[in-house]
Amino acid sequence: MATKSQKLKHVVHQFNTLLRPELAQDWDNVGLLVGDPEITVNRVLLCIDLTPSVLREARSLRVQLILAYHPPLFKPIKTLRADRQEVLFQAIRANIAVYSIHTALDVLPGGTSDVLADLVDMQNRKPIELLAARSARSKVVVFVPADAVEQVAQALFKVGAGVIGQYDRCSFRTPGIGTFRGSQESNPVVGQAGNYETVEEVRLDVVADNKLLPEVAAAIRKSHPYEEPAFDIFPCTDAALLGLGLGRYGTLPKPTPLKTLIAQIKRRTGLRNLQVADAGNHQITRLAVGPGACDDLVASLTGKTDLFITGEVRHHTALAAVRNGMSVICLGHGNSERITLKPLAKLLAQSLPELRFHLSDRDADPLTLV
Fold it and tell me: For the domain with range 137-236, which CATH number is right: 3.10.450.50, 3.30.1300.10, 3.30.1360.70, 3.30.70.120?
């Protein structure tokens, strides 16, 4: 198929749909980091780390977009100078966009954690650490006199509330009885100040993005007939995130010697050397995996697994693991993540067949065993 071009903004939309950057850890920096959304893209280069060598490769391949697993722009910067942020500066100068996915890909089903688990044919997989409940949307509940409910609903729809997926103007309406008593200083639309009143009302429910909540509250106050409109705002947990998390733990198809698993990992990755902390397990049945640096996950695995496969751990973390009967295999930080690039390129090519995806030849773990 001939390579065709797409606007970067359309490619990013597809990336966001497939790779779900919203799954990333709060401290991470993912998505489109560098680039003009209006440029055209027909070639994409995938790498773990965007180094000067990888950028030169990108320029030689004439790619317009680099998908770098690790974000080259991580912490906030106050200046952008060629002598301090060489790679980013040169990427901008060459009009090459940069997109990063990092910990979102670690969480994503079929992503980095699952590819690492595939190395040892892990079964019965579950995340080691579930994502914390998050809320990008809220449910807005407002109580309205029956004859004014449509007026308030339309005001809410106008500012963007009531959108669910491909549907807009979504609401739910429940009739009921509202009660109130206004002070002598009040000016009620219904009844009289100082009297206990009962009114036929409708509970109007809509959802809204959190960023719209100030406009939603203003729309309620402006459109509602009451002097003091009653409304509530409840955070909504994103159901699409339930059950997702970092790393994987599970079981092997059958008990397997550690040395057999080491040989299998070497064969499937092409790595000649691995770092191993051997706890003396004769047979491995329960195991866990975590790409990159996953020291924070080790404590939660104590007593649950015979083996932890990861990129790297600290010296004292390895000692503690062995002391608690858990062996550790370290592939190298980048090596534990790089094995995901090939299946990732395949996934992206299926969704964007008009683009050409390249795996970097210059991308490599900075540390080697000699």
Answer: 3.30.70.120
Of the listed ranges 60-64, 185-189, 361-365, the one predicted with least confidence: 185-189
Q: What is the dihedral of CA 12, 61, 270, 261, to 10 degrees?
A: 0
- What is the DSSP annotation of 123-173? EEEE-SEEPPP--SEEEEEEEEEGGGHHHHHHHHHHTT-S-BTTB-S--EE
Q: What is the pTM of this model?
A: 0.78
Residue type, 326: M
Closest CA to 313 of 331, 288, 287, 301: 331
Helix (H) or strand (E) holding 258: helix 258-269
Could you report the per-residue pLDDT of 82-107, keeping only the tens digit for each? 888 889 999 999 999 999 999 999 99
The CA-based dihedral angle spanning residues 67, 68, 74, 76, taken in that order and rounded to the nearest 10 degrees: -40
Enumerate residues 6+ apart whose C-beta is below 8 A from 21: 15, 30, 31, 101, 104
CATH of domain 112-131+244-336: 3.40.1390.30
DSSP result, 72-126: S--S--S---TTTSHHHHHHHHTT-EEEE-HHHHHHSTTSHHHHHHHTTT-EEEE
* CA atoms lying within 13 Å on the CB side of residue 215: 12
pLDDT digits (tens, 9 = 90+) for 32-76: 999 999 999 999 999 999 999 999 999 999 999 999 999 999 888
8 A C-beta contact, residue 115 and residue 339: yes
